[in-house]
Amino acid sequence: MTIAHPELEGIGKYEYGWSDPDVAGSKAKRGLNEEVVRDISSKKSEPQWMLDLRLKGLSLFDKKPMPTWAADLSTIDFDNIKYFVRSSEKQAQSWEDLPEDWDNRWLVALKNFSERSNQLYHECLEDLTPVLGRKRAKESARFFKTFNSQITMDVMFNWRSFAHFQQLRNSEHAQVEVRELAQQMLDLVKNLEGNPFEHTINAFKL
Predict the structure, then answer these.
(1) Rg for the chain, CA atoms, rounded
(2) What is the DSSP letter of 30?
(3) Measured between alpha carbons, how far is 58 from 101 in angstroms, rounded to an integer?
(4) Max alpha carbon distance in the chain (Å)?
(5) Fewer Cβ neighbours under 10 Å: the N or C end of the chain?
(6) Domain locations in the chain?
């Protein structure tokens, strides 16, 4: 039997004994065709204009020859690639939410790193507050936070800037996550006791 890549023979298991299961990847579709593009667009809840743009790009890709002026691309099997894999895991909100198959060493290291990150955040906040003021100090100190940190922020709007934000971000052209946040903000305003902004909301067609 001929081995396609003999240099990979005998590599064995990952030496640290840890890897992610490919649950999400096993369900993803392979290939670059209209069906796959429509499936990806549907999973991402994209507006029609984005799907149309993707299909136009696919059409152009099919018509264009592969470039020959650089590396050899003739061996790429575009029909054997998974172009979009959505994570099967929900974002963890606590240590208890992490997958059961996580190696304990990774969990301990992540906890230690997060604790050190929080310590540096508060030290920086304490040192910078007398110099910059509390608000600017918090903006500077948050760079010590890890990407999985949740930070509470107070945002102030006058009505004109709030309406402008809604027009830009609560639309089909905005990212899905940003659009959902904008809608939640609008719902909070609409549900204020007595609905004091009812006429203004209607006037701005929000």
Answers:
(1) 25
(2) B
(3) 39
(4) 78
(5) N
(6) 19-80, 95-144, 159-203
Measured CA to CA, the distance from residue 20 to residue 88 in angstroms comes to 11
Question: Phi/psi at 66 (nearest 5 deg)?
Answer: -70, 135
Three-state DSSP class for 82? strand
The label of the residue with tokens 């906040």 reads: 125
Place of tokens 């029909």: 79
Alpha helices by DSSP H, listed for the chain, are 23-27, 34-43, 48-63, 104-132, 134-141, 159-169, 176-190, 198-203
Most confident of 6-10, 127-131, 142-146: 127-131
Distance CA 64, CA 62 (A): 6
- Residue given tokens 């369900």 in the structure block: 27
With a threshold of 0.90, does the pTM exceed it? no
Locate 143 and state its tokens: 């760079």
Distance of CA 40 to the CA centre of its chain: 15
> What is the rounded CA–CA span in Å between residue 13 and residue 121?
39
Interaxial angle between packed helices 48-63 and 34-43, expressed in degrees from 0 to 180 and rounded to the nearest 10: 150
- The confidence score (pLDDT) of residue 206 equals 75
Structure tokens at 96: 């208890």
- Count the alpha carbons within 13 Å of 43 in the hemisphere toward its beta carbon: 16
Please state the rounded mean pLDDT for residues 115-129: 90
Measured CA to CA, the distance from residue 108 to residue 127 in angstroms comes to 29
Dihedral of CA atoms 108, 111, 113, 118 in degrees, nearest 10, equals -160
